[in-house]
Amino acid sequence: MKKKNIAILGSTGSIGTQALDVVRAFPEMLEVTVLTASSNADLLIAQALEFRPAAVLILHAEGYQKVKHALGHLDIVVLCGEDALQEVVQRPEIDLVLNAIVGSAGLRPTVAAIKQGKDIALANKETLVVAGQLIMDLVKQHNVAMLPVDSEHSAIFQCLLGEEQQAIEKIYLTASGGPFRGKDRAFLTGVTKQQALKHPNWVMGAKITIDSASLMNKGLEVIEAKWLFDLSVEQIDVIVHPQSIIHSIVQFRDGSMKAQMGLPDMKLPIQNALTYPQREANEFERFNFLNYPTFTFEQPDVQTFRNLQLAYDALRDGGDRACVLNAANEIAVAAFLEDKISFIGMSDLIEATLCQQKKIDEPSLEDLLAVDQQSRIVARDLIDKIQIK
Ligand code: NAD
Ligand code: MG
């Protein structure tokens, strides 16, 4: 069998390193041909020495000489910068691009890869939040596979296999509720980044960990689900399931429900996307019912965790609203991590940015890239001027 050649964008991150664990487990099936990172030169070098890709890319110029020096004498092309990132995903040998970049920075490489006919394994949910309609149009036009890596979407994807002709009534995206589940607004006012960075069930990158604590992650996932599975807003429900074993549920028009379950380990959905359509044997820990005698479910508290409501509203309002929401959220999370705004100040900042940015109804890709940049400027200004704390 021909090996699948994979480009891993964001290989030094949480998803990226776990993806390399998966590749390590299936050396006869998966081949790494491209690795990219933002700034962690040392880890990128170590990964390249182990996996010997055809090309590596480091985004920031500071690390470039170091990577070049370490790998230059080998048969590995060393690249740097944003433009080269668009180009490297188009290399002819690549079959599948795993996009594990964080934030809207993942959008342009996704577009470049799809246009070149590459299949996509998508962890970078922000791509679909910012430009879901345009991306899914491109996926159809270029006839590529869009394989979800996000655990909830992988669950829905798996539940839908063999059901392609069946009408979906609705889906339930499950949410752990994060570290502040059950807390009230007064409590949230004073929470620190150390508290917010402690997720009960998953170890992930900083941005998605804060998004999980604020429920913005679930909001982004509602938007991601809308585009991946071509659903209306009304067909997407969120249900809090603190055990994080049921990864999501599809309800068909006859009322029958299919759920996908497993231990909370991102290697499972990553493997699923990388080896699709095969299911390969692995040694991951198996689920034991006796460790989980009870599954519980709750309604998400959108009054306290306003970000989830803001995301639903942005999706309903359409046009460029989810792009603005996402950009403002990226600035809000960074500001919270720098102690510039409070935890609940993040929602205020996102709402204020949405109010300030005039809506565009049918944005092009260029419009969305501009709106993304503009919204970041507006959000940063709001932190400095109006002093949202
Ligand atoms: P992370 O911060 O751990 O890693 C991000 C990776 O992207 C790093 O390799 C970094 O070098 C690279 N990167 C950062 N900024 C970049 C830029 N501007 N341009 C190019 N590369 C850049 O993040 P993560 O937790 O691995 O998450 C990655 C994506 O996967 C996010 O969209 C996240 O929402 C999604 N996701 C993550 C998890 C998880 O368990 N970590 C689960 C589901 C979905
Ligand atoms: Mg998820």
TrEMBL record:
Residues 6-132 form the 1-deoxy-D-xylulose 5-phosphate reductoisomerase N-terminal domain. GO terms for biological process: isopentenyl diphosphate biosynthetic process, methylerythritol 4-phosphate pathway involved in terpenoid biosynthetic process. Its EC number is 1.1.1.267. Pathway: Isoprenoid biosynthesis; isopentenyl diphosphate biosynthesis via DXP pathway; isopentenyl diphosphate from 1-deoxy-D-xylulose 5-phosphate: step 1/6. The keyword tRNA-binding does not apply. Mn(2+) binds at residues 150, 152, 221. 1-deoxy-D-xylulose 5-phosphate binds at residues 125, 151-152, 176, 199, 212, 217-218, 221. Keywords: Isomerase, Isoprene biosynthesis, Magnesium, Manganese, Metal-binding, NADP, Oxidoreductase. It is an enzyme of class 1 (oxidoreductase). Pfam families: DXP_redisom_C, DXP_reductoisom, DXPR_C. NADPH binds at residues 12-15, 40, 124, 126, 205. One of its GO terms (molecular function) is NADPH binding. It catalyses: 2-C-methyl-D-erythritol 4-phosphate + NADP(+) = 1-deoxy-D-xylulose 5-phosphate + NADPH + H(+). Residues 261-376 form the DXP reductoisomerase C-terminal domain. InterPro entries: DXP_reductoisomerase (IPR003821), DXP_reductoisomerase_C (IPR013644), DXP_reductoisomerase_N (IPR013512), DXPR_C (IPR026877), DXPR_C_sf (IPR036169), NAD(P)-bd_dom_sf (IPR036291). Residues 146-229 form the 1-deoxy-D-xylulose 5-phosphate reductoisomerase C-terminal domain. Its cofactor is Mg(2+); Mn(2+). NCBIfam families: Dxr, PRK12464.1. Catalyzes the NADPH-dependent rearrangement and reduction of 1-deoxy-D-xylulose-5-phosphate (DXP) to 2-C-methyl-D-erythritol 4-phosphate (MEP). Belongs to the DXR family. This is 1-deoxy-D-xylulose 5-phosphate reductoisomerase. It comes from Sphingobacterium deserti.
